[in-house]
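Let's sit down with a protein and look at its sequence and fold side by side. Please make up or recall a protein chain and show it to me in full. Label the sequence line and the structure token line clearly, so we can match residues to local backbone shapes. Go ahead whenever you are ready, and we will take it from there.
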Amino acid sequence: MKPYKKVDEKDLEVLRSFVSEDRIFVNDDIHPDYSHDEMMIYGKRKPEVVIQIKNAQEAAKIMKYASEKNIAVTPRGAGTGLCGGCVPLEGGIVVNTSLMNHILEIDPDTMSVTLEPGVLLMEVQEVVKNAGFLYAPDPGEKSATVGGNVMTNAGGMRAVKYGVTRDYVRGMQVVTPEGEILELGGKVAKNSSGYSLLHLMIGSEGTLGIVTRITMKILPSPKKMTSLLIPFDSLSAALKTVPEIMKLPDVATTIEFMEKEVLDDAQEYLGKEFPNRNYPAYLIVSYSGNSQAQIESMLDRASETAMKNKALDVFLSDTEERQEAIWNARGAFLEAIKNSTTEMDECDVVLNLDKVVEFVEYTRECSKKYHVRIRSFGHAGDGNLHVYICKDDMDDATWTRVVHEVMDGFYAKARELNGQVSGEHGIGHAKKKYLEESVGETQIQLMRKIKQVFDPRFILNPGKIVD
């Protein structure tokens, strides 16, 4: 492949004809945040120009010109990713969709919401709730954009009952790397019309197209939701209880796991007390329904199952204050761990439920072997673990060696247990090596061929997922 063209003054003159001057940033006007995402360890370099787009037509003009000139383009939303997915590895143009932040329609007849990709998750959840519906996907980072959620197929805490983002995308408007505008899917509930380009685009991390409009399925909002906070004397005991809860006739809305150390980090970060926090490990199990009697029967069965499986107690979070305390702490885990250390790296493998305990015990062994602090929490109901390696006061040379050896060990262990590299955070450029080791050469070659069909010049988000 020939080298990417650097953006020069002539290119900027053309780009300014597409977008107003106040939405184009170059040189010192480019904020340093554009060189990295939430995980600064994966930052590489700043782009040569940042363009904030407002519609698909602007994106199409930019992509058509970039394709003709062989200029690298990196799409970006809120930059909350954890794998370097929006880092402009080849410089070039960053196309920022954050100004495309409008909810266009809530359609009660088709049970759908249509929005632009820059709408924040917290905003769509609130607007849909106020309209009497539920936007089911619930990733932990509420300041992420919905476009970013779609491009990483984000899961979140309610995935055990409702599924992941992919299960809610009905339609999408996408700008191709060569500047064409495609309409994929729509509001229809079913579609078996040839290859699903829509679902190929979901989870593609901005390597196949730039999403400019999304239509998502919404659900009737449940009238009640109550959580159980269930303490155990060890994380292994907590995790061994999860399959038993999963076998109950009632499908839990969430089943989350955590250890006391993570709660301590969150309490310090938030400056708020967490209820009943003096236990080694916990499950949070939530149920939703439409009547108090229905909820109570669910909670009774879950409580009985937990106590049979060596739970130390079961605390009912049946007030708004207790619910808020629990879920605010859970939502702050990532930021709390990040705030507690000088640098960190993260792994979000997903495993069969019967393998989660073995993997967590392996992370403990690594912590002792390498004398490094490791924190973990995650979605126990679907086997998706979030494991963070903390640098703390380790010197740079030791950290570089340790973090690579520990991460290599994590992903090797996941392969041994027939797990997958990522449950919801994606591959970006940080996890490409582990993806290749996990899926093998044949699948990687197929991914490369798909990339080449959509993006023959490899200009869109180059260096991500596959080379």
Observations:
- The chain is about 35% helix and 20% strand.
- The CA atoms of residues 220 and 438 lie 39 Å apart.
- The first helix runs from residue 9 to 16.
- The first strand starts at residue 24 and ends at 26.
